[in-house]
Amino acid sequence: LEQEGRFQPREKGLSLIECAPENENTLCPRQRNAKVEDLWSLTNFFGFATETFVLAVNILDRFLALMKVKPKHLSCIGVCCFQLAARVVEEECNIPSAHEIIRISQCKCTVSDLKRMEKIISEKLHFEFKATTALTFLHLYHTIVLCHTSERKEVLNLDKLEAQLKACNCRLVFSKAKPSVLALCLLTLEVQTLKSVELFEILLCVQKHSKISDSDLLYWRELVSKCLADYSSPECCKPDHKKLVWIVSRRTAQNLQNSYYSVPELPTIPE
C-alpha cells in the first residue's frame, strides 16, 4: 500500500491527455487506448502472462504522463514498454528478439529506434519497472478471501477477474485510480453477482485494512461496472479476439498469388 502511489502515473499528465484534441501533434485518449489494445494482442500472440500486459500499460502510462508525446512516436514507445515489461516478468528464453517484436507488431521503427527509445524511457522512469499494480492487489486480495472463506475456492474465478482488469486497463481513466481501489472494485462487483454475504464481509475487512474510503470505492465501482457492461456487449471489439492483420506490399502480394497457382496438383494417394 505504501508503494502504490510511487508507481502511479502523474494525474496531471493523464488529465492533459484526457483533454487533448485529436491531431498530429497531441496524443488523445483514443490513441492511447488503441495502443493498449495492441499491447493486449501482442501479449496473447506471444503467450505472455497477464502481469506482462498490466506492467507494460503501467510503464506506458507513467511515461506518457511525464512527457509530451506525438502520436507518430506512440507505436515505438508501446513496443518498447512491452519489451521492458517482458524482461521483468517472463523467462529470458521466452522473450523474442527486438526484431521479432517489431515484425509482429508491424511497428514502423528500427531496432536502433527501439534502443534509443528504451534509453529515454529508462532514464525518465529512473529504471524502475517492477511496479506495484492493480494486478498485485487483485492477487493479494483474492488470496486473502480464499484463506478466510468456507465456500468453494472456485467461486471467485481469478482468470475472469484478470480479464476484467485488462478491459479496464484499455480505458485511460482507470490509470487515475489507485491500484488497490481498482482491484477491490472488481472483487466487490463479482461478489455482488455471487450474492455471497460471507465474501462481502471479508471484503469489508479488506477495505478497512487497506484504508479505502466508501466514497472512493463507490465512485470507481460505478465506472468499473459501466466499463465491464460496455465490454461484455456484442458491439465491443475485444482485443483478445482480434486477429493479426498482415500488411504486405503489392509486389509481395503478387508473388504470393503466383506461388499459389504454381503449386502442381499431386496425384491422389491410393488407400
Topology:
Layout: H1 11-19, H2 29-46, H3 50-64, H4 71-89, H5 98-105, H6 111-124, H7 134-148, H8 158-169, H9 179-194, H10 197-209, H11 214-232, H12 250-261
The CATH homologous superfamily name of the largest domain equals: Cyclin-like
CATH level-two architecture of the largest domain: Orthogonal Bundle
Number of discrete domains: 2
CATH class call of the largest domain:
Mainly Alpha
Q: How much helix is in the residues? A: 55-70%
* Envelope shape: globular
- Please tally the helical runs, counting DSSP H or I stretches of 4 or more residues: 12
Q: Whole-Å distance between the termini?
A: 68 Å
How many beta strands in the DSSP annotation? 0
Q: What's the rounded overall pLDDT mean?
A: 88
**What is Rg?**
22 Å
Low-confidence stretches: none
Helix-strand makeup class: mainly alpha
Q: Determine the strand fraction and express it as a percent band.
A: under 5%
Largest sheet: none
- From the 3D structure, determine the CATH topology of the largest domain: Cyclin A, domain 1
Order of helices and strands: HHHHHHHHHHHH
